[in-house]
Specification:
Blueprint: H1 2-10, H2 12-23, H3 35-52, E1 56-60, E2 67-72, E3 80-86, E4 106-108, E5 111-113, H4 121-136, E6 143-149, H5 157-165, E7 174-177, E8 189-194, E9 196-205, E10 211-212, H6 213-216, H7 223-232, H8 255-261, H9 268-275, H10 288-293, E11 297-305, E12 315-316, E13 319-328, H11 334-348, E14 354-363, E15 366-367, H12 373-386, E16 391-394, H13 400-409, E17 413-415, E18 431-433, H14 434-453
Parallel strand pairs: 3-6, 3-7, 7-17, 8-16
Antiparallel strand pairs: 1-2, 2-6, 4-5, 5-18, 8-15, 9-13, 9-14, 10-12, 11-13
Length: about 450
């Protein structure tokens, strides 16, 4: 491994500059005007993978954004690792809160600043660089395939059919994913569980047009007022989701399991300070890390209606809308939860308004067994570079396609991410520590080594 480590050290600056080229492409999947950027980013990555050592790489069309597929087969009898990542990024809004240009990456305070620096271009590119280092030094001990998509941030809808269509091409022993976080650089961890997701949009409609709030105020239902009341009622004073049947399938952990889960290092004071909040809030009877790892939740992601421009406009809006996400835990099915949400929301809405409920996208929770060979190899790899054994950790986040991989391809995924809470993914001023970027790059080759040896 010394050759690989030396190669990475000698090419650190070039790898950073190569990442910057990818970060400069505004591949925002949620906004249709960036469709050409999605294709440009995919083509750039395909070319870069060939340069890194892939036998072949191509941009493959889907119903949505293209998938980059690449492979290097060193021995048909050897183990095969399928690397998954996504090149699409979140919108930058609110733009005015960025301290740097979102798509003009810079390094400051030991961190890479820019949209996608962590999620997921920075983490994705660690794999490209590590792959190059192993190919260049003749050290790659197993077959490697890449599947990089452009729709993760909007639900990966096209990737499900892509996987069904190309199941044979995607055959592998494990799917390797770096799109998650660690507890800290001092306490490395491997994600062994993800929450599922049910993402909804609701619209409340009152009068057929905006009305003068003086002439009609107090006489007709205000959709914004009604929506606020309905949304507030989705969670009670104990932080409990009020949708009937919401908790029916939730697996309750035993006292021993909860005790073990709470052994992960966590400082409530530091957590509050890092977010500039006076106190935490959530489901009563559970700790903060339980609330974000092993308990389901419901949150409003956006809410709008009426006049929000400069100055005043005294109207009762005709419509008001909200986007609402529910994070789910093992045994909860997003399709069932989506139906329960719609049934409840319609039931509690007053007759003075009409409601529309849409299910935008979702995915199942995922659990990665800690006794599978790939996990053991990752454990040894992290220990080799961090100097300590990583802790198993349940993430509060969701990557819906991961459970899809298991059901369609029949392959488990290993979630070995190097992000940190302070990276501010999905927010203005996203960043990624240089030490995270390089440490990930150094760890990945060790995973290949140990995974290949464990056959």
């Amino acid at each position: 491994m010394e050759k690989v480590t030396n190669y990475i050290a000698q090419n650190r600056e070039r790898f950073l500059n190569d990442l910057f080229e990818v970060l400069r492409i505004p591949s925002i999947s949620a906004q249709s005007e960036h469709k050409p950027d999605m294709v440009r980013c995919a083509e750039h990555l395909a070319a870069r993978l060939v340069k890194a050592g892939a036998d072949r790489a191509e941009v493959m069309p889907t119903e949505g954004n293209p998938v980059v597929y690449a492979e290097k087969i060193v021995d048909p009898k050897a183990r095969t690792v399928l690397v998954y990542g996504h090149y699409d990024v979140m919108p930058v809004d609110p733009r005015e809160e960025w301290r740097t240009e979102p798509f003009e990456p810079v390094v400051a305070d030991g961190r890479i600043w820019g949209r996608g620096a962590d999620d997921d271009k920075g983490q994705l590119f660690m794999h490209v660089a590590a792959f190059e280092a192993m190919c260049a030094t003749g050290s790659l001990p197993c077959n490697v395939k890449f599947m990089l998509e452009g729709e993760e941030e909007i639900g990966s809808s096209s990737l499900y059919d892509f996987c069904r269509k190309h199941k044979r091409m995607l055959k592998a022993d494990i799917i390797l994913v770096s799109d998650t976080s660690m507890i800290s650089m001092q306490t490395p961890s491997i994600t062994c569980g993800l929450r599922g997701l049910a993402y909804m949009e609701v619209e409340v409609t009152g009068p057929d047009k905006d009305l003068h709030s003086g002439l009609f105020g107090g006489a007709v239902a205000n959709p914004a007022n009604v929506l606020a009341r309905l949304v507030a009622g989705l969670i009670d004073e104990n932080g409990h989701v009020t949708i009937p049947g919401f908790y029916d399938d939730v697996r309750e952990l035993t006292p021993a399991e909860r005790k073990a889960f709470n052994k992960a290092p966590f400082s409530l004071g530091e957590f509050k300070r890092s977010l500039s909040v006076g106190d935490v809030e959530g489901e009563a009877g559970f700790t903060t890390i339980e609330r974000t790892g092993i308990r389901p939740s419901l949150d409003v992601n956006g809410i709008w209606g009426g006049y929000i421009g400069e100055g005043t406009k005294t109207v009762i809006p005709s419509k008001a809308s909200a986007k609402i996400s529910m994070r789910l835990v093992p045994n909860q099915d997003y399709r069932k939860i989506s139906k329960l949400f719609e049934k409840h929301f319609r039931a509690v809405a007053p007759k003075s308004v009409k409601v529309t409920v849409k299910s935008l996208h979702g995915g199942m929770p995922y659990v990665a067994p800690t006794d599978m060979p790939a996990y053991k190899a990752a454990e040894k790899a992290v220990q080799a570079t961090f100097g300590k054994k990583p802790l198993p950790f349940y993430s509060g986040g969701s990557i819906p396609i991961i459970s899809g991989f298991e059901s369609i391809l029949g392959i488990k995924s290993l979630l070995i991410g190097f992000g940190l809470a302070e990276d501010a993914i999905h927010s203005p001023n996203e960043s990624y520590g240089l030490d995270q970027f390089y440490k990930g790059m150094e760890t990945i080759p060790y995973f290949y080594k140990y995974f290949a040896e464990g056959r």
